[in-house]
Design brief:
alpha/beta; Rossmann fold; four-stranded parallel sheet; hydrogen ion transport; ATPase_V1_fsu_sf; proton-transporting ATPase activity, rotational mechanism
Amino acid sequence: MSESTSSSTKNRTLLAVIGDEDSITGLLLAGIGHINENQKKNFLVVDAKTQVSTIEAAFQDFTERKDIAILLINQHVRSNFNRLMAAAQSAAIQIAEKIRPTVDRYQQAFPALLEIPSKDHPYDPSKDSVLKRVQKLFGE
């Protein structure tokens, strides 16, 4: 690793998360929560009312910050309302899917971007942009 690379990565000590309430709560309980001197959080809770522009703005902010090493983003989120109405309707809010073009365009090594499953939906490898790039590398 070159000196410039190591100096640019040594300050990257935080995880950032864009996800549903359950994922964020679990990760905050695990100790990832941080609020910097500018009162910026390293997480965004997404629900059915969250605007796509808000999710994209958080994604941009997290990927531009120099203190974040890894950005976790839920592929799917089920809102509290949808949990209550699950018998009648099983619609999911797809966080990564809502901003898929932005996620797919992201090519930087840091922060590393990882799509994670939510409590109610399993991980879907066919939607993961990073996995798609790895598969292309190996000619799959």
